[in-house]
Design brief:
By secondary structure, the chain is of the alpha+beta class. Helix content is about 30%, strand content about 35%. It is built from 2 helices and 7 strands, in the order E-E-H-E-E-E-E-E-H. The strands form 2 sheets. Strands 2-4-5-6-3 form a 5-stranded antiparallel sheet. Strands 1-7 form a two-stranded parallel ribbon. It is globular, with a radius of gyration of 18 Å.
Length: about 170
Amino acid sequence: MEARACSKSLALKTTHVLPPDTNAYGTLFGGKLMAHIDDIAAIAASKHAKNPVVTASTDSVDFLAPVKVGHYISIEAFVTWTHHTSMEVFAKAITENIVTGERQVCTTAFMTFVAIDSNGKPVPVPPVFPESDNEKMLHESAPQRAKHREERRKSSKNLAKTFGTKYVME
């Protein structure tokens, strides 16, 4: 498979933050923002893989600033690193005050997606290569994040086995 540039997977989304999407404090629900991030990150991964994808993990979602009702939210995502069938995607969300034009990074996230075929089975993805300095920094640090993901996944499997399918209080 021929390698593709990180920039070829870039996906963008801008939306207005409306009252039904906000909490009692007039700020965007974190879960709503996470859904927007998952959506646009999946599009970036699909663009790279040229196949449907499923979310394998959300490594981190860091909420850095509130997103207020009436503001815009813009999210960009792109593939930073690939393994055999999986892709790491970096996403950044920016909140913008419509009146003043003030913009602020409000969230960053790393997610992993797996490309699948029509039967839902994992399929290989092409390698990715960075071009900009920021892409190179994310690409070079990706193996360490992948190692951490694997360790966290093992721990999660152990927790699932320990707790099983019964409710904690049973």
